[in-house]
Amino acid sequence: MLTLYTKNDSYLRRRFLALPPELYPPERRTQEPKAERQLLEGRHPLSPCFEVYPFLALDGDRPVARCLLTVYPEDDAGYVGFFESEDNYEAAALVLNAAYDQAKRLGKRRLVGPYNASFWIGYRFKSANFRDYFTGEPYNKPYYPRLWERCGFAVTDHYYSNHMRVPTAADVSRKAVRRLEQFRANGYEFRNPTFSTFDACLREIYHLLTALYSTFPGYQPITEAQFAALYGSLRYVVDFEMVKLAYKDNKLVAFVICVPNYGVHTAGKITLRDLREILRVRRQPTEFSIPYMGVSPEHAGLGNALSELLKQDLARKNCTSISALIHDGKVSGGFYKLLLTHRSEYVLMEQVIEDA
């Protein structure tokens, strides 16, 4: 018999964190138990921004479905994330309906998800190409969107990742090459951060990125200190040669960040085996994901120039790449499309709250 448990106590937290290891094999386990525990206990760097309400479906003492409702004071939406469930409609409906009822009591007009508490932590369901996985990609059971649809959610946004082969000398985009030459001739500088300059560069990226991403679905502002707390550890896993920063008159106007594909080895508690694999991949990567790119609107065309710089480095390193998590309609989805081999796809979903 299924029961719903909602008291945010030590028992719920243990059972809440215990469900993902039962659903995923180690090679597909992307759970971050430390961050989940911090969010449940109100100790996460972003916890001052919102309130959270956990919901857990139990079969006896065994967790079978879970989710976390997050609410922001001035937002008319409630955000549902950290959803995990067996392929069991009754269990999924138990937690999702509880989140709906709580959001309605709080005066919210819609539920949006999956959002793991914040735009900055993780969101979207993967919906196609479950064969591949890259570092930082959303990962879930293929049946999750179906369960959500049965519970009243509908898809509102589509995203995709372009998987691209190793570039060769024959792979030339005249437009990208011309753009790079033009920007260099006009006094633009292209730099790479170093370990010692990373903090300063991260602050520059914060100010540009937050301005550019403010129109994205579910975006919520965070402080520079919170941003640094979330992304400061990137210094230990990025290849600095593959982080490109574009400056005009010594002001950052565009950036692109690439990360070697470590798979799941950077997720959760890092074991000695994970550490060995991280060091091996960082020393000799075979694939990079490109999760972050931004260009100030006053400097249109810089994205093509940055894509040309990346293409040259990927060819030199003999690496494949993944242009990651692109919203439908974004210009970046067309960069070096001639290298495309296949795609992964993702969705964002929403449910209207009736009579809120």
Could you walk me through the main structural features you see in this protein, from its secondary elements to its overall organization?
This protein has 356 residues and is α+β, with helices and mostly antiparallel strands. It has 2 domains: 2-123, Aminopeptidase, CATH 3.40.630; 163-347, Aminopeptidase (3-Layer(aba) Sandwich). The protein has 9 helices and 13 strands. The chain has helices at 10-23, 33-41, 89-105, 144-150, 174-185, 198-212, 224-231, 272-283, 302-317; strands spanning 2-5, 51-59, 62-71, 77-85, 110-113, 125-128, 154-164, 189-191, 243-248, 251-260, 287-295, 320-327, 340-352. The model has no long low-confidence stretch (mean pLDDT 95).
Which stretches are low in confidence, meaning pLDDT under 50 for 5 or more residues running? none
Question: How many strand segments?
Answer: 13
Supply Rg.
Answer: 21 Å
Q: What fraction strand?
A: 25-35%
Bin the helical content: 25-40%
CATH architecture of the largest domain: 3-Layer(aba) Sandwich
Order of secondary-structure elements: EHHEEEHEEHEHEHHEEHEHEE
CATH classification, class level of the largest domain: Alpha Beta
What would you call the structural class?
alpha+beta
What summary fits the major beta sheet? 13 strands, mixed
| Overall residue-averaged pLDDT value | 95
N-C termini distance: 31 Å
Number of domains: 2
Number of helices: 9
Q: What characteristic shape results from the CA principal axes? A: globular
CATH superfamily of the largest domain: Gcn5-related N-acetyltransferase (GNAT)
CATH topology of the largest domain: Aminopeptidase
